[in-house]
Amino acid sequence: MNGILSIYKEKGYTSHDVVAIIRKVLHQKRVGHTGTLDPEAEGVLPVCIGKATKVVEFLIEQKKRYLAIAKLGISTTTQDHTGDIIESKPVDFDKSKIKQVVQSFIGEYEQVPPMYSAIKVNGKKLYELARQGKTIERKARKVHIYDIKITSFIPPDQIELDILCSKGTYIRTLCADIGAQLGCGAHMSSLIRTEVGIFNINNSIKLDEFKELVDQQEIDNIIVNIDELFREYPSVTIKKTGEKALMNGNKIHFSYIKNKHEAIKAHDIIRVYSDCGNFIGLYNVAIEGEEFYLKPLKLFL
């Protein structure tokens, strides 16, 4: 089996738990997830199976959307509701001021990763050091908030946020940073990941549903083919005469392409299919002298 399953991870499971269950149910070793969700978080977790594990790095790079609730006035050790309270402050629940501060985070900003994270420093995960009561200096990293909206004000001290962001963004840190800007502190009280690239809540299934579909031999109906991830790129088909070069991962001369106009129009990345319709991979359109050819970028043979 090769493709991507969009799993709705429920609370209580680690991302590794989800992968382990899918491996066991499908009796398949090549399974990998595309971005950790904490046990207390829930939502969309694309899982790559078989040859699709080659696209994990691509999916990790995709924009992600979250629905989070930030509780103002209370700061915690973990920046979420599972940590110990560090400080409590009164909250001025001024909607206009809160909205202004929240929207000021749109764009690129320097975010300091939390101590309770899996980032490694000198070979040790930060959360391991945090559990030992240690705090070490962390370098700020650039993250991008493409959009952030307050979807609900929940008196007396909570706001619901809809966030579209880059990979590597810690939403609990964003909540804490919003609280710091407001002068009252904050922590994240709940988190749902609603989108990862083309995957969203509506096309994701829970683990129990996944098991039922496997039992009913209907799992193929919801597996997303690898090439679906790259549908924004134009596609070409290679003639049978070019199949040897194709299967060997060599560059492909334009004379082997059935629909050359699509390749010429592309200028950059293009999807390549064999004569019988199998997706081979992504190629770059390149020029050597006066000759056009396709150069392999990512193969899924």
TrEMBL record:
GO terms for biological process: mRNA pseudouridine synthesis; tRNA pseudouridine synthesis. CDD domains: PseudoU_synth_EcTruB. One of its GO terms (molecular function) is RNA binding. It comes from Defluviitalea raffinosedens. SUPFAM superfamilies: Pseudouridine synthase (SSF55120), PUA domain-like (SSF88697). Residues 23-171 form the Pseudouridine synthase II N-terminal domain. The keyword Transport does not apply. Pfam families: TruB_C_2, TruB_N. Responsible for synthesis of pseudouridine from uracil-55 in the psi GC loop of transfer RNAs. This is tRNA pseudouridine synthase B. The keyword tRNA processing applies. It comes from the Bacteria. Belongs to the pseudouridine synthase TruB family. Type 1 subfamily. Keywords: Isomerase, tRNA processing.
